[in-house]
Amino acid sequence: MTTASALYRDCARLFMVGFPGPRIDKDFAALMDDGIFGAILFKRNVGSAPESAALCRDIKARAGRPFILSVDQEGGRVARLRGAPFTALPPMRELGQRGDAGVAERVGRLLAHELRAVGFDWDFAPVLDVDTNPANPVIGDRSFSRDAEAVGRLGVALARGLEAGGVASCGKHFPGHGDTTTDSHLTLPRLPHELERLRRVELVPFRAFAQAGLASLMTAHVLFDAIAPDVPATMSHKALHGLLRQELGFDGVLVSDDLEMKAIADHYSVEEAAVEGTRAGVDLFLVCHHADVQRRAIEALVKAVESGRVPRERITEAHRRLARLEARFAHPPEERLATLGDAEHRALATGLASTFAGKDPTEVLA
């Protein structure tokens, strides 16, 4: 039985964590007991379809309450669930070259169907970054297009397909990671563009996503000189509250990218990032690897609320948005493995990417 205080549980709810392997370990179980919102699963956690389904079922049963399970399942090189009976989808660049929003929505429905079949509730997709920089080492073919309007149109369509299939979507990475020359997993990128350029290019897909009323967006650990040159967008009140909430009108869940990425960890403490991110407008933090770091982040937020540095109203606001997502997308333990690998899905994938058929690109994001 948990001994966490009410405030600790309230702050823990603003966190979604990763854990080391294919089973629930004691640290992850303790965090579940203390009130975390959910978990994100990676390649290290998932196996075959039956193994993945069993793990998702065990986690939800162990939580004993609505508990959101998330995953990065974009297609192309970023897909945690691989191999038959899962459908091999091409990178979104290939979908973008077709330019068909109807097909993008069908892909979203396919993704939702397969994720629901093994127990997931939330897909951290689609990428809404605009592919404007051929030297970008992390976005590239994960983006739909070099054209901002096309990215918005196709991203919204795919997200609508996901959500129609019962899986929350998450557009990423706000305010835009497409024109960087470095990878925020490894370093802290900077974009020097003026705000007018951001409004004309990077922000266009996020505006479309906000106007469509979709479930969630993910922040970028990127410095934007025109918005907040000294802190990444994840920690910027001007970027998240001013630009995203007030100017673009987004009222869905705002989730951070992983706070253990080097863009944060090499420049700020995870504790500082969690506190400043909450103040800036983040509703949920991903802390994907180490239980001690996850605990430190929660404890720092508790202390910040106790001291008044983070207003209690900010926690309440985050809870409101999280409860709305949970009410719609948190599914009880279930398993529908027999529905995987149907002919319609295989035909869609084949029609999308004849040049992609037979390839299994190496996943580059751990």
Description:
Helices cover 43% and strands 10% of the residues. The protein is an alpha/beta fold. The chain has a single domain (6-343), classed as Glycoside hydrolase, family 3, N-terminal domain (TIM Barrel). Mean pLDDT is 91; it is low at 354-366.
Task: Give the number of domains.
Answer: 1
Determine the CATH superfamily.
Glycoside hydrolase, family 3, N-terminal domain
Number of strands: 12
Please give the CATH architecture: Alpha-Beta Barrel
Average pLDDT for all residues: 91
| Individual helix count | 14
- Please identify the top-level CATH class: Alpha Beta
Report the oligomer.
single chain
- Rg measurement, Å: 19 Å
Level of helix content? Answer: 40-55%
Strand content: 5-15%
Shape: globular
Spatial strand sequence of the major β-sheet? 6-3-2-1-12
Please name the CATH topology: TIM Barrel
Low-confidence stretches: 354-366
Largest sheet, strands/sense/barrel: 5 strands, parallel
Termini separation comes to: 33 Å
